[in-house]
Amino acid sequence: MQGNRQDAWTNDEDILLAETVLRYIREGQTQLEAFKEVGGRLSRTSAACGFRWNATLRKQYEEAIQLAKRNRKKLPLSTTDTIENKTIEQPNIHDVIETLERLQSFYQQIDHREELRSVLDENKRIKQELQNYREFAQTVHQALEKLSH
């Protein structure tokens, strides 16, 4: 039986890490800074966050990363506000909608994977049950043959 690791990443933690990294990319900050923030919030090391991002999540968010980089690079001056010497970037509404649609699709894929996993587990259980019934039927058949001879 396979148990869950005590330090296993949850779906919510993965989402927090991904959203934070993407926000940092859009804001022109480093991923290392994002890993530090998430590490502090999740009581994990920034190295653990970086490893999780690079080993698991980065591939899933490649399109969102490219979109965040484009948004960072092509922002017109009219959509940039300066408050207390900090630049706050305002993303284009179409890019936000596109990102949200991609995230929605991503979450739907996760739901479908969980449903598939559940169906596969049930299929495995039913196959084992069928095998048990076949073995039982064979045993009964053999016993009946012995009784008839």
Automatic annotation (TrEMBL):
- List the InterPro entries: RsfA-like, SANT/Myb
PROSITE patterns assigned to the protein according to its UniProt record, in alphabetical order: MYB_LIKE
Could you tell me which Pfam families the record lists for this protein? Myb_DNA-bind_6 (PF13921)
What domain of life is recorded for the organism? Bacteria
* Name of the molecule in the record: Transcription factor, RsfA family
Give every Myb-like domain span.
1-57
